[in-house]
């Protein structure tokens, strides 16, 4: 009778190495298919993970396609742009400026794309870790189960990237209705070369691989279960002091260097201060969220106190959920106050392109903000869905103790939306403060008779902030069926 467990533990030949990649890949595909067939919610998480990767890949492809279009228009001008450059060679600077703005949009979307890819990678990590612990119990080594978990995540990422590529090709015809530089966008302009799509896909898969490897490195998977190697996060004060010191140093340098500086230099200094502000906010906000949550936790209301204690216990993930959207509101509030003008030109072709600059910059800014909001909303949705399943046992226990479902849902919503609303309002105020400190609103000196217009008015900036919050509400509402399913399963027992 004692031979059976011995056979299980030594089922592999002594000294045998890792199974072949083909066998592990087949096993990971079988696990992924099995997740879709189960009724435990793993299938929902797997589908959401693939959708998240598809959204990230689609937006990354579209932004890269737009950058490729402006690059080709600058390198090989045609139409009215070619006429304007032929009439005035210095007009090439404006055409090249579009390429710079497109690259800036790519940079601004890197963080939301990385965050969404990371969230999709960690989606359902707890259930995946439990499965891998069972495999350890059946005799697989730690290296084998870690590689198996890695391949399972990469398979979902690959499916999402392929779906995103197909969705990109389907959406590109819609951009033919747009006009940039007084010329209609053509379908062939938006098509990346084949290696361009491979570069975008490779970047997303590399981000996923790094996030998956880091996630698996933080856990120890043994036959007895899963133990996390990371202690509870402790926020320290020295990064806050360092961030404030950096901000003060940049402000002093800006004041000394901005005296008598030209327009280009003042704009560059404004960008430096903006970058410093963003870095400082990124350091300060987790601590600020924790302090605010601890203060709110002292209120008498059970719902507010409950949600606040969740945020105070883990402020860094909370900030990561709302950080991308908050930064876009901050950037909109700052750069929206910058006045721009087409400039005085004499030729008809140059005038046509110059008059379109303001409209094009506004449209490009709205696209960048919209894409960032979509990525942030998708990330919030997958994070909330994962949290619902991970807290399923806690939810069932609270219901059995007599806590109402309405209160549980109110706590979940407050935990997600409370920090978001507070961070967005703070971002609006910081944006206006940054504009006043840097003098960005006066960075362009109007010529005689030249009319300057702000990039976006206060109403537009407030509307962008409100749209971001509404989009986040819709994303969280999309996880409602998951919560109701957990409640229904408990009542059915």
Report on the architecture of this protein:
This protein has 493 residues and is mostly helical. It folds into two domains: 20-232, no CATH class; 238-493, no CATH class. It is 76% helix and 3% strand. The chain has 18 helices and six strands. The chain has helices at residues 3-9, 21-37, 42-75, 79-87, 92-122, 125-137, 142-171, 187-190, 194-217, 238-258, 263-297, 302-313, 315-335, 348-390, 392-400, 405-438, 458-477, 480-491; strands spanning 179-180, 183-184, 219-222, 225-228, 339-340, 453-454. It has a two-stranded antiparallel sheet with strand order 1-2. It has a two-stranded antiparallel ribbon with strand order 3-4. It has a two-stranded antiparallel sheet with strand order 5-6. A hairpin with a 2-residue loop joins β3 (219-222) and β4. α2 (21-37) crosses α3, α2 (21-37) packs across α7 and α13 (315-335) crosses α16 (405-438). The longest helix has 43 residues, at 348-390. It is globular and about 75 Å long. It starts with a helix and ends with a helix. Mean pLDDT is 75; it is low at 1-18 and 444-449.
């Amino acid at each position: 009778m004692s031979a059976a467990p011995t056979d299980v533990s030594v089922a592999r030949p002594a000294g045998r190495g890792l199974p072949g990649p083909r066998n592990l890949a087949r096993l990971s595909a079988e696990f992924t298919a099995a997740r879709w067939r189960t009724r435990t919610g793993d299938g929902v998480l797997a589908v959401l993970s693939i959708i998240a990767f598809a959204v990230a890949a689609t937006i990354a492809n579209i932004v890269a396609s737009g950058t490729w279009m402006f690059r080709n228009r600058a390198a090989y001008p045609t139409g009215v742009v070619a006429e304007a450059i032929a009439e005035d060679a210095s007009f090439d600077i404006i055409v090249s400026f579009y390429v710079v703005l497109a690259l800036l949009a790519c940079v601004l979307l890197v963080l939301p794309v990385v965050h969404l890819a990371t969230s999709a990678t960690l989606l359902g990590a707890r259930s995946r870790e439990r499965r891998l612990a069972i495999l350890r119990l059946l005799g697989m080594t730690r290296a084998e189960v870690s590689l198996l978990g890695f391949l399972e995540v990469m398979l979902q990422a690959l499916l999402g990237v392929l779906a995103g590529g197909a969705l990109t090709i389907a959406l590109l015809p819609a951009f033919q209705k747009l006009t940039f530089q007084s010329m209609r966008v053509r379908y062939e302009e938006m098509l990346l070369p084949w290696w361009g799509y491979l570069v975008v896909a490779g970047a997303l898969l590399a981000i996923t691989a790094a996030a998956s490897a880091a996630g698996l490195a933080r856990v120890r998977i043994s036959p007895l279960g899963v133990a996390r190697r990371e202690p509870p996060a402790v926020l320290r004060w020295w990064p806050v002091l360092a961030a404030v010191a950096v901000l003060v140093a940049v402000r002093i340098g800006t004041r000394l260097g901005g005296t008598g500086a030209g327009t280009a230099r003042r704009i560059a200094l404004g960008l430096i201060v903006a970058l410093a502000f963003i870095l400082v906010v990124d350091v300060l906000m987790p601590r600020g969220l924790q302090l605010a949550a601890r203060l709110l936790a002292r209120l008498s209301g059970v719902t507010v106190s409950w949600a606040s204690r969740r945020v105070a216990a883990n402020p860094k993930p909370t900030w990561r959920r709302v950080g991308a959207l908050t930064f876009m509101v901050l950037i909109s509030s700052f750069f929206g106050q910058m006045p721009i003008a087409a400039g005085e030109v004499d030729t008809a072709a140059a005038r046509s392109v110059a008059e379109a600059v303001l409209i094009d910059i506004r449209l490009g800014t709205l696209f960048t903000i919209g894409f960032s909001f979509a990525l942030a909303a998708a990330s919030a949705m997958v994070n909330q869905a994962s949290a619902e399943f991970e807290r399923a046992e806690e939810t069932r226990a609270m219901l059995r103790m007599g806590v109402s479902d309405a209160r549980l849902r109110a706590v979940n919503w407050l935990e997600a939306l409370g920090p978001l609303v507070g961070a967005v309002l703070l971002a609006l105020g910081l944006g206006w403060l940054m504009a006043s400190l840097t003098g960005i609103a006066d960075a362009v000196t109007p010529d005689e008779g030249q009319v300057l217009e702000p990039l976006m008015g206060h109403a537009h900036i407030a509307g962008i902030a409100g749209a971001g919050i509404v989009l986040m509400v819709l994303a969280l509402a999309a996880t409602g069926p998951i919560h109701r399913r957990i409640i229904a399963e408990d009542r059915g027992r």
